[in-house]
């Protein structure tokens, strides 16, 4: 059995991960980390999420939890996630990071840390979204002059925008067109914007109710619209992807891996026609 520690265990993804670990005989929950200010520290992580007692108390002691784990899975917040990565580097532990919203500086530090330990970093652990990335590249190459717009929707609690997945979609389209998201991205619009800049990659963000995660890439010319769409209905989908990554990662050489590596579709090079 693989001992997994969940970092961000008190959250929505924490709940989905506890549920997924309970249903999977390959894993045993070694530890569950919440923020130090959480009033439920010391309580059983399964019980706080409405599952039967598991005997794993919520804790804020990160070094101790990393020590107990064969692999660490993180869905928390960027600052907390970086601190965790530093501890994992000290203890030479593999880590799967699903957290989004990292700054460019934080991403640079993650790349540096991943020179010492194996890290899977992906804004979306679902199979469907990783196929969406691959198909987006093909579509953006095939329709180089189409207006690219990325529309994403999430629940009212989400604290980063656009979503990590939407930004990755934008980076994918930009790379397929020989540019970067920093160059071509228009992350939001308001006021007297003027006409659409040719070649720009636009974003629209919806935050409403309990939307789990919707992403659409629209490629529009004057005469046709092409859409690629993914909808997640249950966080179980992300949790199972993260556990798939957690099973794949231990024993890999130090490096920064993507969910495409885990799924074995990093070399996917579908050709049209
Ligand atoms: N890659 C993927 O497939 C997916 C990625 N995500 C990303 O995962 C992240 C978490 O999402 P979600 O679960 O919905 O968010 P939540 O806010 O529900 O959960 C995050 C949890 O992390 C906790 N936390 C904060 N600081 C620390 C700390 N220092 N140590 C440990 N835990 C801490 C928070 O506790 P507190 O409330 O006390 O601050 C909170 O309970 C987001 O960045 C989201 O975008 C989400 C789904 C899928
Ligand atoms: O915060 C979420 O919920 C999600 N975040 C991820 C992102 O920012 O892309 C992935 C997923 O859509 C759910």
TrEMBL record:
It holds the Pfam family DapB_N. It is an enzyme of class 1 (oxidoreductase). Its EC number is 1.17.1.8. It comes from the Bacteria. The active site is at residues 154, 158. (S)-2,3,4,5-tetrahydrodipicolinate binds at residues 155, 164-165. SUPFAM superfamilies: Glyceraldehyde-3-phosphate dehydrogenase-like, C-terminal domain (SSF55347), NAD(P)-binding Rossmann-fold domains (SSF51735). Residues 128-263 form the Dihydrodipicolinate reductase C-terminal domain. CDD domains: DHDPR_N. GO terms for cellular component: cytosol. It is found in: Cytoplasm. GO terms for molecular function: 4-hydroxy-tetrahydrodipicolinate reductase; NAD binding; NADP binding; oxidoreductase activity, acting on CH or CH2 groups, NAD or NADP as acceptor. Pathway: Amino-acid biosynthesis; L-lysine biosynthesis via DAP pathway; (S)-tetrahydrodipicolinate from L-aspartate: step 4/4. GO terms for biological process: diaminopimelate biosynthetic process; lysine biosynthetic process via diaminopimelate. Residues 4-125 form the Dihydrodipicolinate reductase N-terminal domain. NAD(+) binds at residues 8-13, 98-100, 122-125. Keywords: Amino-acid biosynthesis, Cytoplasm, Diaminopimelate biosynthesis, Lysine biosynthesis, NAD, NADP, Oxidoreductase. InterPro entries: DapB_C, DapB_N, DapB_N_CS, DHDPR_bac, NAD(P)-bd_dom_sf. It catalyses: (S)-2,3,4,5-tetrahydrodipicolinate + NADP(+) + H2O = (2S,4S)-4-hydroxy-2,3,4,5-tetrahydrodipicolinate + NADPH + H(+); (S)-2,3,4,5-tetrahydrodipicolinate + NAD(+) + H2O = (2S,4S)-4-hydroxy-2,3,4,5-tetrahydrodipicolinate + NADH + H(+). Belongs to the DapB family. HAMAP family: DapB (MF_00102). Homotetramer. Catalyzes the conversion of 4-hydroxy-tetrahydrodipicolinate (HTPA) to tetrahydrodipicolinate. This is 4-hydroxy-tetrahydrodipicolinate reductase. It comes from Permianibacter aggregans.
């Amino acid at each position: 059995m693989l001992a997994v520690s969940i970092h961000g265990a008190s959250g929505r993804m924490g709940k989905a991960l506890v549920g997924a670990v309970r249903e999977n005989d390959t894993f045993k929950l070694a530890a569950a980390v919440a923020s130090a200010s959480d009033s439920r520290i010391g309580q059983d992580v399964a019980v706080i999420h409405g599952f039967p007692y598991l005997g794993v108390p919520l804790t804020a002691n990160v070094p101790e939890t990393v020590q107990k784990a064969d692999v660490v899975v993180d869905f928390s917040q960027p600052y907390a996630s970086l601190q965790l990565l530093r501890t994992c580097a000290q203890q030479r532990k593999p880590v799967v990071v699903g957290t989004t919203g990292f700054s460019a500086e934080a991403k640079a530090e993650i790349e540096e840390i991943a020179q010492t330990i194996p890290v899977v970093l992906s804004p979306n652990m679902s199979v469907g979204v990783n196929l969406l990335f691959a198909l987006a590249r093909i579509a953006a190459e095939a329709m180089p002059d189409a207006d690219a717009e990325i529309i994403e929707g999430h629940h009212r609690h989400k604290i980063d925008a656009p979503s990590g997945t939407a930004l990755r979609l934008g980076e994918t389209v930009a790379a397929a067109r020989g540019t970067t998201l920093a160059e071509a991205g228009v992350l939001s619009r308001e006021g007297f914007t003027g006409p659409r800049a040719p070649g720009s990659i636009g974003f629209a963000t919806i935050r409403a109710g309990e939307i789990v995660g919707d992403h659409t890439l629209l490629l529009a010319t004057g005469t046709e619209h092409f859409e690629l769409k993914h909808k997640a209905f249950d966080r179980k989908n992300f949790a199972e992807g993260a556990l798939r990554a957690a099973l794949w990662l231990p024993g890999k050489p130090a490096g920064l891996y993507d969910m495409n590596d885990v799924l074995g579709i990093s070399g996917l090079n579908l050709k049209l026609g």
